[in-house]
Prior knowledge:
The chain is an alpha/beta fold. It is built from 13 helices and 11 strands. Strand 5 (83-87), helix 4 and strand 6 (108-112) form a beta-alpha-beta unit. The protein is globular, with a radius of gyration of 19 Å. The chain starts with a strand and ends with a helix. The relative contact order is 0.11. The protein binds glycine. Glycine binds next to loops. The site of glycine (GLY) has 6 residues, from loops.
Amino acid sequence: MTITHRTGSYDITFQDVGVALADARPQDVIVTDENLDRYYRSAFPGDTLVVVVAPGEPSKSLATYEAVCNQMFAAGRSRSSRVYAFGGGVVGDLAGFVAATYMRGVPCIQCPTSLLAMVDSSIGGKVGIDTEYGKNLLGAFAPPAAVRIPLDSIGTLPDREFVNGTAEVWKYGFIGNQGLLTRLQKSPVRGSDDDLQEVVESCLAQKAAVVEADEFETTGLRATLNFGHTVGHAIEAVAGYGAILHGEAISIGMVVETQIAEATGIALRGLASIVEEGLRSQGLPTAIPSQVDATELIASMRRDKKATAGKLAFSLLTDLTVCKLYEDVPEDEVRRVLGC
Ligand code: GLY
């Protein structure tokens, strides 16, 4: 599959770990996390610099970004270097942002090892880091040079990480992929499923079509990929990065945002229960954890990148497989749903 963007195009291919990294040169850098480094170090080309970060969302920080760049400067990496982002969404977003900015930009090869990164974050060129003010608030649109998906790495994912990624798979079903939604409602996706590659390809085809049509998120179309994310990002920020995994927060966000759609009359009553039932069948959480303060959630949602002039913006389902950006959702309705 090839994705075309404003300045070129890149291929998405399925390649096992050893093959995906085989062409890394001595002047390149592989960015990965401690878990993957322990498991796969022998598969990394021996003479390529490997920069290892701590696993988990807290590594999407200014401090880790600076530390990665400094290791590259100290090792003499130049404008002719390439960055291989070998890891899940955290590594992909962080390494992608390093590549986008290192000496004004070097190529990035995304090698997503988690389901979440395979179906979503490695595709489309959004890279960045979090701040105390919110998720992904420092970043860039910087398309990768290539995406190589090592499906064999799925087998090494802890169960919680795999289930975490399924939230984004369900998202594609809910926002427009009827075939995928029917497949998921029949049977939740598992790492051992024979059709796992087909499921991933179905998500990729959908994301490719959306990002080609609205690369810079200006028409509202790409914003539909953010279904569940206004609430989900706020949950991540308020709970503390890493306390709740991204997909888990998005799962809760999809249910709450559909309750908001019902409360505002955008969706018919009953839709949130259908969304919730599907996500629960997959083993995903569907309710806001008790330690997350609803008033803080509202403040965080106002800083969402989709928001303008402090208004609350959500990509909401009007029906199953129909999603649309709403940029001025009444705050009192949101408060009512959140109970604050
Ligand atoms: N993850 C949403 C997007 O790429 O736009």
